[in-house]
Amino acid sequence: MTAVFDSFLNDFVIAFILGVLGGVAAELIANNGNIEFPHLPADKINLFDMGIASNILLGGIAALAYLFVLETTDPYKFVGAMIGAGVGGSAILTAIKEKLNSTITQGNADTQNALVESATNNIEGVRQELEDLQAQLNTTKVQGLEGFKKKLAKLNSTIVFAETSLKDSLETSKKNLKRLGKIK
């Protein structure tokens, strides 16, 4: 990450300040140009309405979070993006959270796909070995038959194990995707 304003600390402070300004703009937009000051609502017990402070805080935090996903060295784009993140506040934070969840889900899917592909390749390799052994068995005299039968049995159990592992991996993948709400 290249600093836009000479150092990361400067970028961090400037991003927060610009996010706070965006939060003030969000407050003005949400309340038709009015500012709601923090107060205790009369109709709600045990609730404190933070008013403009909530938009200011969310704007600053959203700008800081956006700082880490923004890839620019242009100070004008930086300023615009940080103010925009401040105006967006909670929507920006939600979008970043969804992006992270999507990245994690994609990583899990890639891992599962690699495992499935590896298991499939292993099964194909074992099947090929079985076919080779079967061909050798057909051309071998009876006295070497027991050794080949043992190899066939071992390879067959390897295939069963690989197929079971593959099915388990697919089921785990489906459960993870269901848990993350990606499939029904």
What proportion of the residues form beta strands (DSSP E)?
A: under 5%
Q: Share of helix among residues?
A: over 70%
Q: Residue ranges: pLDDT <50 for 5 or more in a row?
A: none
How is the main sheet built?
none
Please count the helical segments: 5
**Count of the domains:** 2
What does the radius of gyration come to?
Answer: 30 Å
Distance between the termini: 39 Å
Structural class: mainly alpha
> H/E order of the elements?
HHHHH
What's the average pLDDT?
A: 79
- Backbone shape: elongated
Number of DSSP E strands = 0
Protein architecture, described:
This protein has 184 residues and is mostly helical. The chain folds into 2 domains: 8-88, no CATH class; 104-179. The chain has 5 helices and no strands. The chain is elongated, with a radius of gyration of 30 Å.
Architecture blueprint of SSEs:
Elements: H1 8-30, H2 52-67, H3 75-88, H4 90-139, H5 145-179
